[in-house]
Amino acid sequence: MFNSYKKFIKGLCALAVLSLGTIGSANAQLGDAGAILRAGAADANILLENYLAPFGKGFGADLNTGWFNTAKTHQTLGFDVNLTVSAAVVPTAGQVIDINSLTPQFDQLELTGGSSETPTISGNSDTDTRLGVYWNDPRTASPQDVLFDFGMVGGTGVPYVPAPMVQATIGVIKDTDVSLRFIPETEISAMDGSVGLFGFGLKHGINQWLPGGRLLPVDLSVQFGYTSFASNSGFEVYPTENSDTYNEFDLSVWEGQGLELETSATTFNVIAGKTLPFISLYGGVGLEGSTTTIKTPGSFPYTAPNENYDPVSTNPEHRIKVIEKIDSPIDINIDGDNSFRAFAGTRIKLAVFQISASYTLANYSSFNVGFGITFR
Questions:
Q1: Per-residue pLDDT for 238 more than 60?
Q2: Which range has the worst mean pLDDT, 67-76, 155-164, 275-284?
Q3: Non-local CB neighbours of 284 within 8 Å, separated by 6+ positions
Q4: What is the full DSSP assignment across 181-230?
Q5: What 8-state DSSP symbol labels residue 91?
């Protein structure tokens, strides 16, 4: 079966963190990932969606930041190129899962030991929570035994979700900036997969359209941004053979397994600010949304009670447990937790170099810092 959830979580973080160049990766572990699939795809999706929700929401919030560092637009053919790093802050409520609140949604999983509260991927590293499935084992007199259980292991201990970004912006006509984020589909041997990113943004100065707008002491602009990130990595999950379990499948059945992650994020903002020779200040409000999907294409093994069990038979097909096959078991959609946002930031310009910083206030608030060159 799966060696551990560690491979799943590390693969996920490699897709969205390591592949974009972030230093470090989440080292959260969930234990035996095969165990959760033995409870069925529905329960696996419910548990993993709640465990990974802070990652999906935080990553989506990150992609919606860093689009601008002033309210003022470029002159025609003025441009800048920036490297920014965002870090979404996971709220306290997003760092813990209450298993009791999920139990009514589970088909089979139940709390078998420890606390009912356990960390999410962004929570602390300590937990004693155990989940499992009960059954009536025909080999025992006990009316209800544990078919299997597994221990939930804690999160990364880091309540932040980081994401770097490279972006180029050029000024065109009528106080309009066009921004581009782009990473062509790139093979990454370390994750046995590839990543790609595309983003497109527009910022338009609106002083020109307001009566007396050119005389206002501040620059006013509106901005739209869309970012799409997609990645995939290899995944290898094989059944564990033992004397209690019958497996009819050839190893070739498990080929083609993978881990796919896609995130799309959209934001619309109204910005007001003042640009001076060396420093710019700005603030504003906006709307944003994001969706992260996580899928595992391919066929995966799980262990189930054998309906053909015969205690006196020596035929391996009559063993008490049997390996079953489940196709594409994980299919998770995580919607961003942010809708309305307020933000403020500053940029310091030294010759052609610029340093910027901003803070966005939302359900998943975020910090953003950047460095780049600009020719306005």
A1: yes
A2: 155-164
A3: 71, 269, 270, 271, 272, 273, 342, 343
A4: EEEEEEEEGGGTEEEEEEEEEEEEE-GGGSTTGGGSSSEEEEEEEEEEEE
A5: P
Contacts with 190 (C-beta within 8 Å, 6 or more apart), sequence order: 14, 18
Q: Are 264 and 256 in contact (CB under 8 A)?
A: no
How far is 257 from 259, CA to CA, in rounded Å?
7
Q: Quick: pLDDT tens for 309-351.
A: 999 999 999 999 899 898 998 899 999 999 999 999 999 999 9
Do the Cβ atoms of 126 and 156 come closer than 8 Å?
no
| 11 within 8 A of 235, measured Cβ to Cβ | yes
With beta carbons less than 8 A apart as the criterion, state whether 373 and 354 touch: yes
Closest CA to 48 of 111, 121, 130: 121
**DSSP state letters, 296-321:** --SEEEEEEE-TT--TT---GGGSSE
Model confidence band, residue 139 (pLDDT cutoffs 50, 70, 90): confident
Q: What is the mean pLDDT of the segment spanning 169-194?
A: 86
Q: How far apart are CA 142 and CA 334, in angstroms?
A: 40
Long-range contacts from 302-311, C-beta under 8 angstroms, 24+ separation: 302/1, 302/34, 302/37, 302/38, 302/40, 302/326, 302/329, 303/1, 303/34, 303/38, 303/148, 303/239, 303/245, 304/38, 305/135, 305/147, 306/246, 309/138, 311/138, 311/139
DSSP-assigned beta bridge partners for residue 371: 83, 355
Q: What does the block give as tokens for 244?
A: 């209690």
pTM over 0.85: yes
Residue 150's pLDDT is: 83
Residue 27 pLDDT exceeds 60: no
